Every structure is written in structure tokens, then in C-alpha cells.
């Protein structure tokens, strides 16, 4: 009888262990899933607060949308994915991503927007919403404000605890790169050439600093052979005339509809109206040219591919469940 009782007790203990183990597994699985209504119970005003803050900031500073889109791209394209690591400040012991040379030109309006949203959300639902979810959602909402396509943003990301400047090198496209190098950056992250070209369509809004194009426009007097329309080159030279004295001097990436998200950027490229060397590369390279031509003819199709590519980008290597953290401040780890 004693042996039977002991066996029974052991079986119950073992069963309890497995039940507990399964509960833990199920909790981890549920915590790991991104959902559209992740904050429905914990922060019901999440979407409203973001929309109100985004609208106010964009009206106050019309460059905010393009700035935030660029910030989002520079965060998610890195190997650590969409974890808001680009928002972290450097410390005396570590140089962060945002202080890498390629990120020094990231506009302050985008950082300010995230701070405003985070502050409002912390007052409404403390220690609940991640900075990475804020950045992903704000980017989508700003694109819609400019006339861009809607796409679903799945929520439940957590923020990364590390941000290292040296990890940025080689993972973000530079205007000076060849098209082969730029395509490689995106294909290594799982994007097709078509998706890469669509994401390049983000240049339909925003601006580029004159220092980025100075060597291209001043080393070629006529624009011949460079991909630039000759008259456009002369206009860029005049606009950028004082760039050495004023390093913040910049020009719109899309001179036709600079504040509207549309397909005019692609229509500009065959006319030699691209600002950056990489813009011209999209039209001159045989691997990307067909997509430029299709997007230029069909805005609906461009929007479709752009939206799905942005959603895909927003899901790269996200941290969920017990990974990462919910930062109290977006510029420093807890």
C-alpha cells in the first residue's frame, strides 16, 4: 500500500510539473505573438495618443514625416532589427548607433516626436508601450498623413538593450554605393529587388543634404553622363552654393511634389531629376530599371508593394515575450 501511495503521489507531482511546464510554454508563446490589438486592455488610448501627437508635430514641423520614416528604416535594417536601438544615446563607455557617421544627419524632429509620444503614453499607461512599437506605428500614421498607403502594424515588440555604432557599418545604404552593393544590403535581409526599389520610393518625400551630392554636381558641369538633367544640375548648384559655409543646406528629393507621398519620384528618374547618385542608379541599372518604370506608371501597384515591404521591414528580428524590455525613456536602457 505504501508503495502504491508513493507511486500515486509521484505521478501527481509529475503531472503537476507537466501542467505547470505547459502553462509556462503557453504563456511564452502567447507573449511572443505580435497582434493588432496588443494594447487593447493595457493601454486603450495607445492609438489615439499616437495619432494626436503625430498630427500636432507634423503640422508644427512638416519635415517630421520624412524624418521619422528615415529613422525607422535606419533602425530596422540593422541585424538587431526593429528594436528602437537607434534611439539610444551614447554613454562614456559606448558609442551608440545614432552617433555613427551615417546617422549623424538623422533629423532631430523624428527623435523629438518619439519623446513626445513616449511621454504622453507614460502618463496614460506607465511601463507598458515599447519605443519600438511607437516608432513603427508613428511612421505608418505619418505616411498616411502624406497620402501614402495604409498597412497593418502588428504590436508587441520590446526594446533592445544594446546599441553599438560599429554594428551599423555595411548594413545601411549610402548614396555613394553602387546599385549592386545597395541591392545586396536588402537581399541579405530577405527583400527582393522589387521590394528594395519600392522602399527606395521613400525618397518621394524628404530631403538630402547638399554635402551628399556636392561631388556629383560640381564635378560635372553639364550633367552629361552622370544621369542628371543638365538644367537640373545648374539648379542644384545654385541651391547648394553655400553648402560649405552652411552644412545643413539641403534640397528636396522630389522637386515636383516634395510633401506628398506618391509615385512622382519614380517619374522623375527617367527625366534625370533624381537628386542622389543612388537615385540615378535605380534607373540606369538593368536589375532595378523595370521596377522603376512599373512604379512610375502605376501608383496603386507601387503603394501595394511599398506597404507590404514596410510591414515586412517592421517585423524584422523583433524581440517579444521576455526578450528585451519596455524602456521608461527611449534614449536609455532601464
Question: What does this 3D model show about the protein?
Answer:
- Keywords: Calcium, Disulfide bond, Heme, Hydrogen peroxide, Iron, Membrane, Metal-binding, Oxidoreductase, Peroxidase, Secreted, Signal, Transmembrane, Transmembrane helix.
- The protein has helices at about 1-30, 45-60, 65-75, 110-125, 130-145, 180-185, 195-200, 210-220, 230-240, 265-270, 275-285, 290-295, 300-315, and strands at about 205-210, 250.
- The chain has about 325 residues and is mainly alpha-helical.
- It folds into 2 domains: about 45-165, Peroxidase, domain 1; about 180-310, Peroxidase, domain 2.
- Strands 1-2 form a two-stranded antiparallel ribbon.
- The longest helix has about 30 residues, at about 1-30.
- The model is unreliable at about 1-30 (pLDDT under 50).
Amino acid at each position: 500500500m505504501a508503495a502504491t501511495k508513493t507511486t500515486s503521489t509521484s505521478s501527481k507531482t509529475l503531472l503537476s510539473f507537466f501542467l505547470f511546464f505547459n502553462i509556462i510554454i503557453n504563456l511564452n508563446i502567447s507573449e511572443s505573438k505580435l497582434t493588432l490589438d496588443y494594447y487593447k486592455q493595457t493601454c486603450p488610448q495607445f492609438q489615439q495618443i499616437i495619432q494626436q501627437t503625430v498630427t500636432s508635430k507634423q503640422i508644427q514641423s512638416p519635415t517630421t514625416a520624412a524624418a521619422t520614416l528615415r529613422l525607422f528604416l535606419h533602425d530596422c535594417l540593422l541585424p538587431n532589427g526593429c528594436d528602437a536601438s537607434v534611439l539610444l544615446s551614447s554613454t562614456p563607455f559606448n558609442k551608440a548607433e545614432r552617433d555613427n557617421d551615417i546617422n549623424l544627419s538623422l533629423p532631430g524632429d523624428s527623435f523629438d516626436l518619439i519623446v513626445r509620444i513616449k511621454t504622453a503614453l507614460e502618463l496614460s499607461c506607465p511601463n507598458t508601450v515599447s519605443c519600438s512599437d511607437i516608432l513603427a506605428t508613428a511612421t505608418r500614421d505619418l505616411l498616411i498623413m502624406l497620402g501614402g498607403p495604409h498597412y497593418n502594424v502588428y504590436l508587441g515588440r520590446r526594446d533592445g538593450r544594446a546599441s553599438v555604432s560599429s554594428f551599423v557599418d555595411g548594413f545601411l545604404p549610402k548614396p555613394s554605393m553602387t546599385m549592386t552593393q545597395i541591392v545586396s544590403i536588402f537581399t541579405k535581409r530577405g527583400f527582393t529587388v522589387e521590394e528594395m526599389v519600392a522602399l527606395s520610393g521613400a525618397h518621394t518625400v524628404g530631403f538630402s543634404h547638399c554635402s551628399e551630392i556636392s561631388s556629383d554636381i560640381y564635378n560635372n558641369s553639364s550633367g552629361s553622363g552622370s544621369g542628371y538633367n543638365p538644367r537640373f544640375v545648374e539648379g542644384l548648384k545654385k541651391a547648394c552654393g553655400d553648402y560649405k559655409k552652411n552644412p545643413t543646406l539641403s534640397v528636396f528629393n522630389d522637386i515636383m511634389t516634395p510633401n506628398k507621398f506618391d509615385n512622382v519620384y519614380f517619374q522623375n528618374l527617367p527625366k534625370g531629376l533624381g537628386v542622389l547618385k543612388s537615385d540615378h542608379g535605380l534607373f540606369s541599372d538593368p536589375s532595378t530599371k523595370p521596377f522603376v518604370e512599373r512604379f512610375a506608371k502605376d501608383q496603386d501597384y507601387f503603394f501595394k508593394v511599398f506597404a507590404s515591404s514596410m510591414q515586412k521591414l517592421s517585423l524584422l528580428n523583433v524581440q517579444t515575450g521576455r526578450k528585451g524590455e519596455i524602456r521608461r525613456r527611449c534614449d536609455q536602457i532601464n
